[in-house]
Design a protein that fits this description.
The chain is of the alpha+beta class and about 350 residues long. It has helices at about 50-60, 100-110, 115-130, 145-155, 175-190, 205-210, 225-230, 235-240, 250-260; strands at about 10-20, 25-35, 40-45, 65-70, 75, 85-90, 165, 195-200, 210-215, 220-225, 245-250, 260-265, 270-275, 280-290, 295-300, 305-310, 325, 335, 345-349. It has 2 domains: about 10-235, 3-Layer(aba) Sandwich (Rossmann fold); about 245-349, RNA polymerase II/Efflux pump adaptor protein, barrel-sandwich hybrid domain (OB fold (Dihydrolipoamide Acetyltransferase, E2P)), CATH 2.40.50. It binds adenosine-5'-diphosphate and magnesium ion.
């Protein structure tokens, strides 16, 4: 069946339930999603929110309990992985330890019966792109974590998939290498123009790499938008708290401060000044230094509010116990839909 080829991947009301009866786990609940060709799309959410299950259903490793999955215009919902135009990079890379790097990369071509010379030529070209040509004759155990990561990528890319699925591919790397690989992965994706569907629980990774982000919570997609909209205009309390630091206020506090039932104010949007100025008076409880900014937590009328001071601003950071004024512009307040969760006042960092 051919549906719309303008979409790389389309999920229509897809659900996945593991087990039955009392043991049933609703891993993915009614997810509908359109991913465009060439898009870098990230599934973001906490552990257990259904990201991997969703990715496995796109790859064909798990079949949906209900719903339809369309890839490049074809309904692939019931097809096995090898009949889908996608490839997957798993978190543990799953390289063949007994094969050399070039043999690992060429593997998909060997399985397809491509002749040995072409196999090697294509594998070497790809290794060159990944700046790995010098490691071609090594075994995976003789590589660093970052190199193994790139070999896994090259191996997944050699079959020229229309869509590449990546499940927390940078999870095993230390922070510095992880940041470098985030940059490299993003530029590689731009260069190749292949659709990437990337899974992470790391909000910074999601915001910095993606064209669009889908935020998962308990198997549902709470919001799909570009990174800036996700950060500045979260739709739900969950998204506001999961992405970055947020002062989320509801009830009487929100009514008094913002005249809204529920709202979010990001810490960097609060201006701290000398006591007696600003909309609100507060007392500093704690300060933390983050290199680029100070994070100051203040208590005002029984409510904790967190404010950031950019170090580059040259403004002095107040000390615990100091009285301060807190101010913000009306545009800094983002209304949130009130939901059943009693979010009196909290800040997630
Ligand atoms: P994430 O990748 O966001 O951490 P998963 O998709 O792995 O989340 O898991 C979503 C939920 O489904 C979790 O509660 C998990 O325990 C459950 N789950 C995942 N795979 C299976 C499985 N094969 N059998 C039973 N439950 C599973
Ligand atoms: Mg997972």
């Amino acid at each position: 069946m051919s549906i719309s080829s303008a979409l790389a991947v389309s999920l229509v009301n897809v659900s996945c339930i593991f087990g039955t009866g009392m043991q049933a786990v609703h891993a993915v609940r009614g997810v509908s999603l359109d991913i465009k060709p060439g898009e870098f799309f990230t599934l973001l959410g906490p552990s257990g929110s259904g990201k991997t299950t969703c990715l496995r259903m796109i790859g064909g490793f798990t079949l949906p309990t209900s719903g339809v999955i369309v890839i490049d215009g074809d309904d692939v919902s019931q097809l096995p992985p090898h009949l889908r135009p996608v490839n997957t990079v798993f978190q543990d890379y799953a390289l063949f330890p007994h094969m050399t790097v070039v043999q690992n990369v060429a593997f998909a071509l060997r399985v397809r019966g491509v002749n040995a010379r072409t196999q090697k030529k294509r594998a070497m070209e790809l290794l060159d792109t990944m700046q790995l040509a010098h490691t071609a004759e090594r075994k995976p155990a003789e590589l660093s974590g970052g190199q193994r990561q790139r070999v896994a990528l090259a191996r997944a890319l050699i079959g020229e998939p229309k869509v590449l699925l990546l499940d927390e591919p940078l999870g095993a790397l230390d922070l510095k290498l992880r940041e470098q690989m985030q940059y490299e992965l993003k530029s590689l994706q731009r260069k190749l123009g292949i659709t990437f569907i990337f899974v992470t629980h790391d909000q910074h990774e999601a915001l910095s790499m993606s064209d669009r982000v889908g935020v998962f919570n308990h198997g549902r997609l709470e919001q799909v938008a570009d990174p800036q909209s996700i950060y500045e205009m979260p739709k739900t309390i969950f998204v506001a708290n999961f992405i970055g630091a947020a002062n989320v206020l509801s009830g009487d506090v929100a009514k008094n401060l913002f005249d809204l039932p529920c709202a979010m104010l990001r810490p960097e949007r609060i201006v701290l000044s000398a006591s007696g100025t600003g909309r609100l008076q507060g007392k500093v409880q704690e300060t933390q230094y983050f290199g680029t900014h100070w994070r100051v937590s203040c208590i005002s009328q029984g409510t904790t509010l967190v404010a950031d001071i950019a170090v580059a601003s040259g403004q002095n950071c107040p000390k615990p116990g100091d009285e301060v004024g807190l101010d913000w512009s009306a545009q800094a307040v983002h209304p949130l839909a009130e939901n059943a969760v009693p979010a009196q006042s909290f800040c997630s960092i």
